[in-house]
Write a structure and sequence with these properties.
2 copies of one chain form a homodimer.
Chain A lengths: L2 E6 L2 E5 L4 E3 L4 E2 L3 E5 L5 E7 L7 E4 L2 E2 L2 H18 L5 E7 L9 H16 L6 H11 L11 E4 L9 E3 L6 E6 L9 H11 L3 H20 L3 H20 L10 H15 L4 E4 L6 E5 L4 H8 L4 E5 L6 E3 L6
Parallel strand pairs in A: 7-9
Antiparallel strand pairs in A: 1-6, 1-16, 2-5, 3-4, 5-10, 6-9, 7-8, 10-11, 12-14, 12-15, 13-14
Helix pairs in contact in A: 1-2, 2-3, 5-6
């Protein structure tokens, strides 16, 4: 029985992925750029079990839901078809992200699964191949193959993978203002944005433009410009989503309170910039030296945790993931 | 010495005016629809004073600022040129809107000024003419010539005036969450939206579409649909503004708290819908029978005042506006 274990971390986009050009291949409408984090790891072991009737998937020691299991099986089917294998697998995954931290576990989850499954099934894939493969599980997983700052290129199947990009040092303060599960999933909201938001075309165009500006700012190590582009791109994503019919407002009063406080931090001379994924929680970037002060100032608005740049998905020695 | 006094009220748009096709003529990029309120009147007396060297403008008994005075003189110049007069005027205006209520006094101000000045200078204008004239002072003043629900047509100078439209009965609960003067004026924000927001074209198109839907809903007396269109159009306006570079966030945490509370009101079976002009304060529409309950529920989020449909700008017997 062949087995492999991999670990991956979530990433927070500075230029957001929001909208697909191709639903099946998960090709993004525009490129994006993110920081892979050094916390909230997902560790996944894939073990081939030719004698089993079907795949089995456990998450944090418990059987996963039928929806989760089906999504994992669809992904492992891709790996099996490339490997010419028909063997079912046992997939055991452990996720360190606290429920409701607002960190999509699908990015770390499919990045870890891509590395572990490719290895267990004997595929010989380089890092770009693994990034392309992870993409098929969840778009944002594409970027979690990369250490630290990661740029995911738009384009066709071959061109659409993530690779490292240099940039200024930064810390992220994650502010969890609401730990409840969101009412509308990212997948559904992304579809509704493309179908009903009058701002979707403008969003895609402006994001492609922002990514070019962000690339320049990263290469120049220009933290201020990176921060400005980050916050504007996040506001534009939420603006495009809020313009859906019916509207989806992920940013609630508690979320906007963090954006307001970050504006005040800047007025007080501490450079911080806010971003938020498809949910109420807010992530604030700052220079590493300012992170403690930022966390202190935002502590009254939610649970705060400071994180930095972490490694891309990789194999680790096998351990117990049950 | 000829003199005339007029009174006008502010209006709250259900389909917003945000963007000009022509800055000089103040032709809107799309039509809009509003309710003229029954409170916060502006009362203005215009008295010709041929012996004066220049116009004099007093606001609530005090000399107006140079910027305000210049704007009034530019408007009276329009009236003078049509009347073939060169007489300066004394303009005395009294505004009942409390400072910071978030009610643009320029709508009631220029509506009252248009009626009083046209009369004092002897122009014979019908209501559509007066609406066109008020437009030259401030776009939203166009609609304050009309009783209750008012639709302002886009189009060229001749076509762009407001007229009444039937609709369901409704009340408005004005929630003042922040009485401070806003940091970016509507005029500047409107210009920045047109110049830098990637969503401006989508905003203009979707507003024209929403106005057609709103017209149908009003004529059908369909309060629910009127409310849905109102809230979505407001969110889209703020989304287009937030997407500016640099971003302008008029809706602060306290504003979004009202949108959140209104969503909860609906979940609890009370039909209410939120809108907001270019500032932090929020206006909530409901059926008249629900207004007291809505005001009660929102009372913790700011100063509340319930208003209803009011009259369009009109002449009143002269009184002391000093």
């Amino acid at each position: 029985m062949r087995t492999a274990t991999a670990r991956a971390h979530p990433n927070i986009a500075l230029v957001k992925y929001w909208g697909k050009r191709d639903e099946e291949l998960i090709l993004p409408a525009a490129g994006s750029l993110s920081l892979t984090l050094d916390g909230f790891a997902t560790t996944t072991t894939v073990s081939l079990d030719p004698s089993a009737a079907e795949d089995r998937f456990t998450l944090n020691g418990a059987a996963a839901s039928p929806t989760q299991s089906e999504r994992v099986t669809r992904f492992v089917d891709l790996v099996r078809s490339r490997a010419g294998s028909s063997s079912p697998a046992v997939v055991r995954s452990r996720n360190e992200a606290p429920t409701g931290a607002g960190l999509a576990s699908s990015a770390s989850g499919f990045a870890a699964l891509a590395v572990a499954a490719a290895t267990a099934y004997g595929l010989d894939l380089d890092r770009a191949d693994l990034s392309r493969l992870a993409r098929r599980g969840s778009g944002s997983a594409t970027r979690s193959l990369v250490d630290g700052l990661s740029i995911w290129h738009a384009g066709d199947d071959a061109a659409s993978f993530a690779e490292p990009i240099d940039g200024p040092a930064m810390s992220m303060v994650i502010v969890t203002v609401d730990a409840a599960e969101k009412a509308v999933s990212s997948r559904e909201a992304m579809r509704r944005t493309a179908a009903t938001s009058p701002y979707y075309a403008g969003w895609v165009d402006s994001t492609a433009h922002s990514l070019r500006e962000m690339t320049t700012a990263c290469r120049a190590g220009d933290f201020t410009r990176v921060g400005e582009i980050t916050e504007l791109n996040a506001l534009r994503m939420h603006a495009a989503i809020e313009a859906c019919e019916p509207s989806i407002r992920y940013l609630r009063a508690g979320s906007v309170a963090v954006f307001d406080a970050v504006e005040q931090l800047r007025a007080d001379g501490i450079e911080a910039y806010a971003t938020a994924d498809a949910g109420p929680n807010v992530v604030v970037i700052s220079r590493p030296a300012d992170a403690a002060a930022v966390a202190e100032r935002l502590g009254g608005l939610g649970a705060v945790r400071v994180v930095g740049a972490g490694p891309g998905a990789r194999l680790i020695p096998e351990e117990d993931c049950a």
